[in-house]
Amino acid sequence: MSLLQPKMLRPMSTSEAIAYAVKQANVDVIAAYPITPQTIIVERLSEYVNNGELDAEYVAVESEHSAMSACVAASLTGARVFTSTASQGLALMHEVLYVASSLRCPIVMAIANRALSAPINIHCDHSDVMGSRDAGWVHIFVENGQQAYDRVFQAFRLAEDEDVLLPVGINLDGFFLSHAVEGIATISDSKAATFLPPRKAKYYVDSSMPMTFGAFALPDWYFEIKHQVAIAMEKVPKKLEEVEKLYYQMTGRIYGHVGAYKTEDAEVGLVCAGSAAGTAKYAVSRLREKGIKAGLLSIRLFRPFPVESILPHVKDMRALVVMDRAMSPGAPSAPIGQDIKTMLYDAGLRRNIPVVNFVYGLGGRDISAAEFEEIVTKVAKDVKARRRIQRGTIYWGLRS
Amino acid sequence: MSSVETAILPGGIVSRPGSTADYKTGTWRVKRPVVDLNKCTGCLICWIYCPEPAILKREDGKIEFDYEHCKGCGICSEECPPKAISMVEE
To answer: A-chain residues within 8 Å CB-CB of B17?
Structure first.
């Protein structure tokens, strides 16, 4: 029996659910610039502040570059800081993203994933976050509004842990999720406050005890300071597990680093991230009905890439279909494909598990369950016939 | 944790104010400034322009150099009105 009582569900779009969670997280500073499809998140937050429902400083900046700069400065004073962006906004923040992670600012940012120009487009793909994936941020993908709501609390708790101190991006598919309304099981303000007490920063800007933040570092120390980000990243999987356990005790909801569905005896694994996971899950059930042993792995923690959590699911599979909603022109694979292949190589499984990497859905082009079925059915047939699995990157769903 | 990890605070925070003085930049120098005290009028234009500051005031009102921090940029030599500072190969 689920812990959720239907009467307790509140109808909200994913954007509204995120804004509501941020209010309950009692943030101190929000610095943001509205951009489609993230706009509703910051609009709701500005309303909360304006109406006196949230005691926070709302900094209405003139660009995303300024938004992230203000967030870094606020975070260094020990404040709990939130922002949100998408697409061109994330691209404009790019240089400051690295400052946020390297200065160990536990900022939480919702990214309503949207395609990058040109051609200008407002719809979903993952090009924005993939362009920023080496900036030292923890990245989480959500599949629905409930996950987005819950991950806000978990993200702050994870980010502000003294062993982590890294910014966290919560990635939600633009429009597919940001504008979709569903029933959200919320937690009470008091539960939120218990789970997420006010931030207690160990080091912060304070004129009574002057310190230098963001000092110049030359070849003699730069490398070591940068390496701190890698060390902190390594601690994230275990820390997130601990955070999720606590959240589970309070809500009965737990998501993990990956969302696995029917992977136990699967021969062909389908790997994806974001809202497509729901469609893929339906496709896997249909494939099972047809006797095809398919399984689904939804990448929920993307950075750090949760190798240890993925490997047990895939080690006995005979092929993997990796679906990327972003391309990496000229690279041997698309972003998630690169990570999966590296993982298999390091685990000594590269010969056992061929990988077919698909780039799909750019600029918001939809993908249906039938398409997932078609892809997996073909790969499953090749596996059964012991035919060589097609390698390389396949661009799926292009006009012919 | 390794000793390197404990030696630096998160994000490379420097917790002691004024510690830049401990960072000796004199090794960057290719040419060193040398003052001709017969020409030096003690106007301290060099002291104003030196970005470090690596110009030290002597008791007699003239100047000398802090070679531990002087990077050898040559601005003092360029700005000195009586041309009392010359840049000499290290």
So the answer is: 210-212
